[in-house]
Request: fold
Amino acid sequence: MKREIIITSDGSSTIHLPEWNEQYHSKHGAIQEAKHVFIKSGLSLFTDKKISILEIGFGTGLNSFITFLEAPKFNLNINYVGVEAYPVAAEEIEKLNYVSELIAIDSKHIFNQMHKQEWEFKNELTHNFSLTKRKQFFNEIKDINTFDLIYFDAFGARVQPELWTETIFKTMFNALKNGGILVTYSAKGSVRRAMQSVGFIVERLPGPPGKREMLRALKK
Reply:
């Protein structure tokens, strides 16, 4: 499938798949979307803690890198696990402009290390941030009561509806600890109903630029 690096509305890059007319991040702003959905609506709810995060769709590494940069603001010690079945190629990673757009040149080595580290290996990037990348399909996740926060950032239901089913959200529900939270950019009614059917308490929140709403789900 053809893949292109494009620039989104906030100046940050993403990968575009013309055949699907789908992007790894919002065309209205990759960085803006990540900060709004995953940091403002998810990570910021946790302070002064040691937490575990599961990212569904590690992709370009943008969400993990922003989380690394934002964690000190909330005094968090983070164990981050990113799941990806189809890793992004190294030559594509080199063309992404996240380090410059986030004004994070001092952490460029961290972004590079995130992508160069081995899969299935827990890497202590700093004293308060570890990363494990797992190469697996989402329906192969078997974690039980493990994570405090899930970033659900799969390709949209329009192109991969099988990733937004009750079965997948039951896997997510099981993977979260009691009191754990899942956040996603999606606001589809079918997605909300699938979440509710497996036990999540779901709320609609204002969405990132270009989207009216998003969803946040709680495991009580």
Summary: DSSP finds seven helices and eleven strands in the chain. The helical segments are 30-40, 62-70, 90-93, 98-101, 108-116, 166-175, 189-197.
